[in-house]
């Protein structure tokens, strides 16, 4: 019935909004710079892209679970005010581009080690990052864990895969 349609619309909205917000938030972000640095260093796009995907799924699933949990333990009025102020703060934060601070080690790595280096580096770089915080807030806003993580993940990939291609100087299928 209409309740099922409303739930489906909310899921589609959560997916679309989370994809868009994360893709925009990643422009100039430290993880986009990390993708570029890893690609330039290792010239192995496939394991880097796979590492980004795995790290994003793990990190954003945890962030979405935290946001969904918050909706159950925080009073709705406080949640509304907190989310509103948080969205404004993250919007302002997105206007400030990140810088690459860290150097990445070794050029003679195997595809497996490049994958794990990328996975760990991306997972850690996303801790407390604006896109992770946005994921927590979106999960609290939509109270929809399932469409959210699959929505934030393409947002990360849309922003970071071109950086991998550009940094490696090769096609991303190489």
Sequence-ordered SSE layout with sheet pairings:
Layout: H1 2-26, H2 30-42, H3 45-73, H4 76-94, H5 111-126, H6 130-142, H7 145-168
Helix pairs in contact: 1-6, 1-7, 2-3, 2-5, 2-7, 3-5, 3-6, 3-7, 4-6, 6-7
Structure, briefly:
This protein is an all-alpha fold and 174 residues long. The chain has helices spanning 2-26, 30-42, 45-73, 76-94, 111-126, 130-142, 145-168. The longest helix is centred in the middle third of the chain and has 29 residues, at 45-73.
Model description:
The chain is built from seven helices and no strands. About 3% of the residues have low confidence.
Q: Give the strand tally.
A: 0
Largest sheet: none
Helix content: over 70%
Share of β-strand residues: under 5%
Large-scale geometry: elongated
- Structural class, please? mainly alpha
Characteristic terms for this protein:
7 helices, mainly alpha, 80% helix, 174 residues, elongated
